[in-house]
Design the sequence.
């Protein structure tokens, strides 16, 4: 569909991309309920440091922000939404929120890696906190018929 973006020539400003997309297999229906997977990308979902014995070096710092707006279908209302996360350490920040705003569900996610290098003595903290993100990714928004 249509894609719009901010000025790519100004490297001092935030670069934004705005687009619409349609996803298969992101909605399931059982009886009178709809189950919606909110996150298509699930960044950092599988990055775990379980057997690694040396520091991990990312190729660059990350600062990802996703904003998703989902229109609630006519005849449905929100039954439940996932609880958001707000985790901040010296090495990263994870923030998610899911809210109903009128006839839409608004999902926001920000993952910021503050440092490129994750030392081995920080792997346990990384694994613990990113497991919370992985668990969040498994939760769904649930709509029910009015």
Sequence:
């Amino acid at each position: 569909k249509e894609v719009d973006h901010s000025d790519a020539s100004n490297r001092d400003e935030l670069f934004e991309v705005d687009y619409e997309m349609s996803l298969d297999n992101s909605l399931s229906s059982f009886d009178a309920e709809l189950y919606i997977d909110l996150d298509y990308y699930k960044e950092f979902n599988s990055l775990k440091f379980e057997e690694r014995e040396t520091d991990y070096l990312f190729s660059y710092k990350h600062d990802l922000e996703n904003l998703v707006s989902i229109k609630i279908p006519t005849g449905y209302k929100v039954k439940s939404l996932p609880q958001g996360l707000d985790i901040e350490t010296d090495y990263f920040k994870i923030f998610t929120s899911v809210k109903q705003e009128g006839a839409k569900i608004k999902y926001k996610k920000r993952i910021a890696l503050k440092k490129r290098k994750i030392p081995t003595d920080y792997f346990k903290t990384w694994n613990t906190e990113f497991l919370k993100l992985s668990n969040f990714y498994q939760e769904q928004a649930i709509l029910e018929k009015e």
About this structure: Residues 123-138 form the longest helix (16 residues). The CA atoms of residues 70 and 134 lie 21 Å apart. The first strand starts at residue 3 and ends at 5. The chain has a mean pLDDT of 90.
